[in-house]
Structures are given as structure tokens and as C-alpha cells.
Amino acid sequence: MNSDTIDPNGHEDLALLEGLLERSSFGTDTSDLKARTSSEKAAYAVRLATYLREASTAPQEPERTAEPRTVRARKPGTGGSTAAAKPTRGHHLEQEGMPLHESDGAAPLRLLTLDPPGKHWRSVLAGRWASELRSTAYIPFSRDELRLRLLDLVDHIADALETPESVDEAARLVGNRLVEIHATGQDSLPCTLAILREHLAMTTASSKTRKSLLQTISASYFAAEITSAFEQKEALKQAIERAKLKADQALRSSEERFRKVFNTAPTGIAILDKSGQFIDTNPALQEILGIDTHNLSSMTIHELVHPDYIDFLAATLSNLTEAKSSYRSRTELPLMCAGDRTILASLAFSVLHDTNGDPYSFVANVEDITDLHMLQERFRYNAIHDSTSRLPNINFFRIRLQDELNRSHRGNLLSTYRIALNFDSPPSTRAIETIVQRLEELTESENSILACFGDTDFAIAIQHSHQTPDESQFAELATRKLSAPIDSDSHSPTATVNIGAVRNTDADATSAHIMWAADLALRKAISLGGGRWVVSTHIHA
Hints:
About 45% of the residues lie in helices and about 15% in strands. It is an alpha+beta fold. Pfam families: PAS_8. Keywords: Coiled coil. This is PAS domain S-box protein.
């Protein structure tokens, strides 16, 4: 039967409806139906046909065996007369005085029994309930899982309607379960009540029982929702407290680690404000400066820097605060310490920013590199000086000679001498020192470069002036002065002298060319015998 094509006024449709009721296990009194108005018949026919269609299309479920019982219904106006209904294996529901449409004002049409074959109506109700409930809230279950959960609630409701004293318990269970499955959307409860109200209207349960059931579901739902909200609030509060406790513990642990590193670091560490005022200093910095933390707290770092570097330090810190990409800077500055000491310090600055990204303080790492600097200077000095005479060695001489050539103008004369000494016995350190002193005396009035290529091998470069002797005169003076005895006694060592001299007149000559020519002239002088010198002007540039 199609509910959309029923004509309650037609005798043929009415006969079909009556036959349907007789063939079904509903057991409705058709005489009561015939006494209704056409509109009442139509409403009932539509509702019944819709219900039957939904029940027939619902998935079949295994039936649970129930003890059959006889339902006796009161006919309107009979004052309690009863009629035996056919026992079935289904679930029996009762309804008394439920109007088909609450707004039409019609007298209630009483169903004696409503017990579809099997329990298809429960599945229909659970399926519709699940479908509409999913649209009201996010429920973390699949459609099938939600339908099974709601079917269990429908079973509880149906069982409770058979024993009215258990209705409240079943209703409370429904309200609590709805909150447990997170059906707590704004429309979740109204949707549930509307669906249950519609389907329960088809049962034989009294309106008072149905009303009590729905009211208890609403009350238990709100109570469970309040309890759930309170529990969530408490859980959130506890989670916040645990997170705060964990954060506090992490902060204390971090501060303890920082303080341990700060106090045990071998290098000095200072925390400064934006003006350079000391906020905190570690023991290593206090030891480096020889100033305790109490006195440092009243000072700025600018007071420790040598006056010649105060502006440089101020510019460094200013640039650091304005930097967009780099927050670190390293420099070396002399610092004035307690006891009028001055040290060379390596300063590494980093800037700290607040949550808004604005700089608010500096961290300065201070390391005393005085000894390291002196060692480096000594290493550099030894790398370019002779270890015995302390004069520039051949490498340094070549560099300085080239610098002198670069500064000279065309036409300026530059003479270079290679001097070789041959002692009659191994020279002592004092003998070498005496030779160096005599060479310095020979060149003290000249713009010259004096170097030592070995214990007894020397070189001199002289930029000519109006009083500079020519190469032969200078070679003669040097030979006479250097060949004199080291001491006045007769056993003092003496040396024979050979000199190779080069006069540079080639503006394109380099230091390598000149040293090669001077070396060639010295070899020629040595080949001529002791006390001889050779002057050359032939330079291959």
C-alpha cells in the first residue's frame, strides 16, 4: 500500500486498510476506525502505511525468544471489557489515548497492540536515530557502530515500557549514553526527543509513561552534560596545573644549569643592560679584572676600556642593537684592571631580545688573551728575524727592500750590499753581537735596512742621500771596521771580509733581481780572496 495514494473516503481503500489490519498482527478494532472522520482516517492510514514501509525495508536481525503473553485492551466506552489478542514472539508495546496529530484536536485513536513481526521497528528507529543524530554533532563513531549503540538504547527503552517501574532507569541510561558518545550538539537532544516521541506514539505505552520517559531523558542528559563539563573543566584545570608544574620545574632546571655554567665557566661572563651597566658577573670575570661583584655592579664596561677605545666600543654596541640579521660581535680591546694593570681582552657580545623583539640587554664573554697575544707576537717576530743577531732575516729583508723600491722615484739611487765574514775560529755569541753593533754604527746616519742571513752573512740596503758615500768607499769602510779584532788581546778572533755591492739604476728592478745581482757580486769578491769587494751595476730586470 502506498501511503501517498490512500483515499480514506473511498470504500475500496478503507476495505484494503481494514484487510491489512486483519492480516497483520496489529489486531486493531476496525469498528472504531469506521467511526472516525475522513481526516482522522487519512492521518492514521498515512502513519500506519509509512511505518509498515519502514519496517519492511529495515535489515533483519536475529530474534531473541521472548515469553509470549496475552495483551488485553479496553475498547472505548466499554468500561473495562477486554479482548484477547493473538500472542506473538515480538515485543509488545501499548499506547493509550495518543492523538494522531496533536494539533488537529481529534479524539485519540487507540491501538490495541503494535507488535510488528520480529523486531524490525527497533532497527528502523535506531537507523533513523543514528542518521539524524550524526548531523547534529561530531560523534567519533562510524554510522554502523553508532546504530548498534543506539539499538542497544532502543532495546532498553522497549524493555522498560513493559515494566513501567524501570522507565526512569532506562531514561537515565539513555541521557548518560548520549553524553558519553558526544552527542552534545545544540540540536542533539531536541532531535532525539522528536524521534523518540514520534516512534513511541506508535506503541501501546501510555502518554504519561512516554512523557515521563522523555522528561527523564532530558533531565539525565542535562545532568550528564553538566557533570561532563565539570569533569572536563577539572581535567583541564589539572592538565594546566600539571603543565605549569612541569614548566616551573623545567624553568628551575634551566636556571640551575645556566647558573652552574655561569659560575663555573673558565671565561669571564657579564650581563649588561643597554647602557653597558653590569647586571651580573661570574667569578672568572671578577678574577680576570681583579674587581669583586659588588664594585662591578656600580660600574659600566665603558669605564674598564682604555680611553682610546671608548668610542669604538660604544659604536660596536650601538650597531649590535640595530642589526637585523646578526646579534653577535667579536673584538679585541685593552681593559684596565685593578692595580693599574692593563690586559688585552677578547670581547664577544651578543644581544638579548624581549618577546616583542626589542633588545634589552647584552651578554659579554671576556677572555684574557694577553699571554696569547704576546706569544703570537713573539712567533711572528721570530718568523722574520734571525734568532742570534735579532736582525731581520732574508724573508723580511726581501719584503722591506721591495717596499723601499715601491716608494722610490725614478733617479733615486739604492745600493745593496752582501757582506760575508770568515772568522779564523768559530765566532761566539759575543763576537756576533759585536759585528752587529759595528754594522749599526756604519748605517746609523743612513736610511738603511740591515739584515742577517746567517751567523756571518749580512745584507744592507741604503737609500742614497747627499752625504752617502759611494759603493767603493762604503765597502772600504765596512771592510776596515769589521775586520778589526773583536777584543784588544792578541787571542781575540778576527775575520776577513768580502763584500758584493749593487747600485740600482733600473726603475723596473725588483728585490729578487737586486738580491740575485748582489749575491753574484759577493761570489766574485770571494773568488778574488779575503778583504776584497766587487761593485756591480748590471742587473737583469
